[in-house]
Specification:
binds pyridoxal-5'-phosphate, 4-stranded antiparallel sheet, 18 strands
């Protein structure tokens, strides 16, 4: 029996594999290399990361304008990963002086780092300006601060203006960042005030527009609305003399497959009778034929012959008429980079002197790692079963292992 978590992590014959290495063999190897065996450790698949970058590259190559992948470092600032990402020709977006240091250590050229954020400290802005990074202007006060730093250093800086396009990304409010009222960027209606400051500054050179509407976006038409807003604004600013706006940074992160991934890495947690009963009771069927089909699927599931997502799919096909249940439990459509780019391609066909930037975080890294740890024991807590593992030795440094360093036993 084989399940796939992602292309490079999968279960085969009851064992979890990273690429073609059994994770239990890996644990034994790590122990031999002197890492205390029970210590939790992140295991990354290099191939999966390269595959994810390639998916963006392939999609972007279908556009009529040049493009850049700006990896959003907040997703994971592990320097080994950053080096790999840089080596693939990506740029990076960062939000603090510390991330700037990580970017430097990873070897990113300063002009390939974009310093974003609504709360940049003066010291961090100074660091970014001295190095020659691109800087995002997030508000009027941010604009004044960046301008003052540049004046003090006598250095001109290329900036992008982060715009709040007031577009609903249709995601959880906690990760929604582009509606009016959000704390990020300048609302389109207030852009004039900041643009005036930019036009009066001898130090700030407007080279791009940026927006980020939120994370876990499923409906890719959201990106089209944002891009339209940015292109309209670019045209209007060009008419007012800002003729060097060549970057359009279309932030907004794609949804990733949390459900299947979490599910398949933990087959043991799936089969509490209470949980199955709860699912069963939601399926409103009095038809005995349907009931017997359901029972057989539940039996297979309890025997670990299928993962939770497969269970849900099977239940959905048996209960096609139970629309409400299907909608709640099986609407797991994960958009791909090709979907994102496909939705915006028509808007770019006639654009000249423009480079499109996309700013993915979780959709590049989310499915590239597992947390490997020994289990100290498990206990029941209500409907859940809690698995306890040892704590990290140093909270601030989470050890990790990249697949290129994994040697099969
Ligand atoms: C400005 C900016 N860019 C990019 C990202 C990455 O988003 P995601 O991880 O959803 O791809 C974020 C996430 O918060 C962000 O705030």
């Amino acid at each position: 029996m084989a399940y796939r978590i992602s292309n490079q992590f999968h279960f085969k014959d009851g064992y979890l594999f990273c690429e073609d290495v059994r994770v239990t063999d890996l644990a034994a190897n790590v122990e031999r290399c002197g890492v205390t065996p029970p210590s939790p450790l992140f295991v990354y698949s290099k191939s999966q990361l390269l595959e994810n970058i390639q998916a963006y590259r392939k999609a972007l190559a279908t556009l009529s304008v040049p493009s850049v992948i700006n990896y959003s470092m907040k997703a994971n600032a592990n320097v080994s990963l950053l080096k790999l990402i840089r080596g693939q020709g990506c740029c990076t977006t960062l939000v603090s002086g510390l991330e700037l240091e990580f970017g430097r250590v990873a070897g990113f050229h300063p002009q390939r780092m974009m310093f974003n954020g609504n709360g940049k400290t003066r010291a961090d802005v100074e660091k970014a300006v001295r190095l020659g990074c691109l800087v995002n202007v997030d508000s009027d006060f941010d604009c004044r601060k960046i301008d003052a730093v540049c004046q003090q250093l006598g250095t001109k800086t290329s900036v992008l203006l982060r715009v709040n396009p007031d577009v609903d990304p249709k995601v959880h409010p906690y990760v929604s960042t582009g509606l009016a009222g959000s704390k990020f960027g300048v609302c389109v209606d207030d852009v004039d005030q900041v643009v005036k400051m930019l036009s009066e500054s001898s130090y700030l050179h407007l080279v791009g527009l940026h927006c980020h509407v939120g994370s876990t976006v499923r409906d890719v038409s959201v990106f089209r609305s944002c891009l339209q807003t940015l292109l309209d604004l670019r045209r209007s600013l060009q008419q007012r003399g800002f003729t060097d706006i060549r970057y359009i940074n279309l932030g907004g992160g794609l949804m990733i497959d949390y459900e299947t991934h979490a599910d398949r890495t933990h087959p043991a947690r799936l089969d509490t009778d209470e949980e199955l009963k709860a699912i069963h009771s939601q399926i409103d069927s009095h038809d005995s034929h349907v009931q017997s089909q359901l029972n057989s699927v539940f039996d297979d599931y309890k025997a670990e012959k299928m993962a939770r997502s497969q269970l849900l799919q099977r239940l959905a096909s048996i209960t096609q008429s139970t629309w409400k249940w299907n909608r709640q439990h099986t609407s797991l459509e994960i958009p791909t980079p090709a979907d994102l780019i496909g939705s915006i391609r028509p808007l770019l066909t006639n654009e000249k002197d423009l480079t499109l930037i996309v700013e993915p975080g979780r959709s590049l890294l989310g499915n590239t790692a597992i947390l490997m740890t020994s289990v100290l024991g498990s206990k029941k807590a209500g409907l859940k079963r809690i698995v306890c593992y040892p704590k990290f030795k140093k909270a601030a440094v989470w050890p990790c292992l990249m697949s290129e360093h994994i040697v099969p036993t």
